[in-house]
């Protein structure tokens, strides 16, 4: 069994933390707060983790679609943004070189002419 965590800033107001902030410096345990035990329902736990870092555009779109019903989608995206994740699907969004992009481009050179 795993415990999901998120940054304290993402926690509902009034929820207690593991430790107290001291001297204005936050420790890792101060910044993390336990989330409801829903890890068995999380698509990223139920499916192959490689899917969220896939090269093929159709696999990336599948990962994004699986994130749509995830109960931690918002927290996942906020965490990825705050950590400045360089790539992968996080919270239903695709990160490429640290930026959120709409679609993954296929590898290789683009065609010079349109395919019929």
UniProtKB/TrEMBL annotation:
Upon Fe-S cluster removal intramolecular disulfide bonds are formed. The Fe-S cluster can be nitrosylated by nitric oxide (NO). The keyword Transcription applies. Its main location: cytoplasm. One of its GO terms (biological process) is cell redox homeostasis. Its cofactor is [4Fe-4S] cluster. Keywords: 4Fe-4S, Cytoplasm, Disulfide bond, DNA-binding, Iron, Iron-sulfur, Metal-binding, Transcription, Transcription regulation. One of its GO terms (cellular component) is cytoplasm. Residues 43-100 form the 4Fe-4S Wbl-type domain. It comes from the Bacteria. Binds 1 [4Fe-4S] cluster per subunit. Following nitrosylation of the [4Fe-4S] cluster binds 1 [4Fe-8(NO)] cluster per subunit. Pfam families: Whib. [4Fe-4S] cluster binds at residues 44, 67, 70, 76. GO terms for molecular function: 4 iron, 4 sulfur cluster binding; dinitrosyl-iron complex binding; DNA binding; metal ion binding; protein-disulfide reductase [NAD(P)H] activity. It is found in: Cytoplasm. Residues 1-25 are annotated as: Disordered. Belongs to the WhiB family. PANTHER family: TRANSCRIPTIONAL REGULATOR WHIB7-RELATED, TRANSCRIPTIONAL REGULATOR WHID-RELATED. Acts as a transcriptional regulator. Probably redox-responsive. The apo- but not holo-form probably binds DNA. This is Transcriptional regulator WhiB. The lineage of its organism: Bacteria, Bacillati, Actinomycetota, Actinomycetes, Micrococcales.
């Amino acid at each position: 069994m795993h415990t999901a965590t998120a940054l304290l800033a993402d926690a509902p107001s009034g929820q207690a933390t593991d430790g107290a902030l001291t001297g204005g410096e936050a420790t890792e345990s101060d910044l993390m707060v336990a989330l409801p035990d829903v890890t068995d329902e999380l698509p990223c736990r139920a499916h192959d983790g490689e899917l969220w870092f896939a090269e093929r555009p159709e696999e990336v779109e599948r990962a994004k679609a699986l994130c749509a019903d995830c109960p931690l989608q918002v927290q996942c995206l906020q965490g990825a943004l705050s950590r400045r994740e360089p790539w992968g699907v996080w919270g239903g969004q695709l990160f490429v070189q640290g930026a959120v992009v709409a679609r993954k481009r296929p590898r290789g050179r683009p065609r010079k002419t349109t395919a019929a």
